[in-house]
Design a protein that fits this description.
Elements: E1 3-10, H1 15-24, E2 28-30, E3 33-36, E4 39-42, E5 47-53, H2 59-62, E6 67-70, E7 72-73, E8 76-77, E9 79-80, H3 82-102, E10 110-113, E11 122-128, E12 133-140, E13 143-150, E14 154-156
Antiparallel strand pairs: 1-5, 1-6, 1-9, 2-5, 3-4, 7-8, 10-11, 10-14, 11-12, 12-13
Length: about 160
């Protein structure tokens, strides 16, 4: 019996409901979570993984409370290789630490640049740009200028 991991889209904010109900039907389900502010949150909001055999009747899953639909690409169900699920499980704690620390600055926070040509310049946090870059404002000639720098180049003051 060959099994695949499938991606299921849940109803909004019902990942845990879907996980519990699918699991109670005897299916293996995986919902990666992390804890933030003492509350468990899904790592991939709106999605869960379910491990199904090819010859199993999966239709009851469609009427399971919390389940919206199976994710498809055209007519094909989205299958996730076992190695990807294993990698997510192996790196779940690292991903959680990165996610929790990813948004440590809020708009308007005062920061100091710690390296590069603007070392020791105080700036104001504006927004996140990419995974490791941020946009900050600094005053120059009585005008605010936007610059993009590495998140690792600043500390909160």
């Amino acid at each position: 019996m060959f099994k695949n991991w499938y991606l299921i889209q849940t109803k909004p904010r019902e990942e845990c409901v879907a996980e519990k109900n699918i699991s109670s039907q005897g299916f293996e389900v995986y919902l990666p979570k992390f804890t933030l502010n003492k509350k468990d949150r899904p790592l991939f909001p709106g999605y869960i993984f379910v491990h199904l055999a090819d010859n199993i009747n999966w239709r009851p899953l469609l009427s399971t409370k919390g389940v919206a639909r199976f994710v498809r690409f055209g007519h094909d169900f989205a299958t996730i290789p076992e190695c990807i699920i294993g990698s997510i499980r192996d790196n779940e704690s690292n991903t959680i630490k990165k996610y929790v620390n990813a948004f440590k600055f809020k708009k308007g926070d005062k920061l100091a640049i710690t390296s590069g040509p603007l070392k020791c310049v105080n700036v104001c946090f504006e927004q996140y740009k990419t995974d490791e870059r941020i946009v900050v404002l600094f005053s120059m000639l009585n005008q605010k200028q936007k610059i993009t720098i590495e998140k690792s180049q600043v500390v909160k003051i």
